[in-house]
Amino acid sequence: MQDVTGLPFMRVIAECGSPDFYFTEFFRVYPNSKLDPEILSSITRNPSGKPIFAQLIGESIPNLDRIARELQQFSIAGVDLNMGCPAPRVYKKNVGGGLLKDSRKIELILKSLRREVKSLLTVKMRIGFEDDRNFEDILSILNDCEVDLLSLHTRTVLGGYRTDPDHEYVARAVERLDCPVLLNGNVTSAKVAYSLKCQTGAAGVMIGRSAIRNPWIFRQIREMQLGMPVFEPRMNDLYKYVQNLFVALEKPEMDDRRIVGRIKKFLNFVGLSVCPEGKFLHQMRRSTTPAELFRICEKFMISEGLAFQKLNLEPFDSLLARPSQESVES
Known about the structure:
Helices cover 45% and strands 12% of the residues. With 330 residues, it is α/β, with parallel strands linked by helices.
């Protein structure tokens, strides 16, 4: 997830229980683009010991090839092409989810990348742009281009994050493709992940937003699959997680306003499991200093006996993590 799941988050989630592998934030690719040093640090300073894929977003074939070559000089598991980003400012440039409107362009990009990428070539996509008219054609292209892994978000691009996901598309992709398929979209808990994996035949799940809200979710999935007792975080665990995030995100050159603004991007998701009435989100979003922010966190996470209350593993209904974006993308 762009501007969120970079190196600081990787450091924190590694302590809670890493996923089997990571995908970087996307490297924006265009003429004369260079590797973003901040994103590159999640590869060169990967603290988890787990494999990491370098994610690209763009539509210029020569430049995608060039950046893929540059990235293969580093320790990556493979190169991932983003064909799913639903942000209007992205898809209007015919990149990310915008590529799904042009099957021929997808074929040309993947054929060229397949020649350049000597390790794994993976794709993240949605089921279509405004509908699924190109879905089957694109699956055929993925097979023809010998893609090694598909992560499938089961909404359309214009569906954003507000429409209901249709996980039946994962089962269709599993049936058609020669490569493994990861299910993505509203995987809100370990229980949901396990159930959807069994229902669809997916090789696994890709989790973004829910891992920010509950950084123990990968550990919980692993424990559930192994038949072990599943870790049940308490609200004081959540408070410590927020503290660790703050430390990981903080930089000497940052003033209070900037560091508070940065951690709010994470707390927008965390808050979906804190207060069902949305009071935590309301107050947190109006805080301006670290001291004020942590007073609010203490109030809703550890004061008055809350510390040992179990964390709600599913998000509360009717709350939005990013109201402006999620309403625009609905």
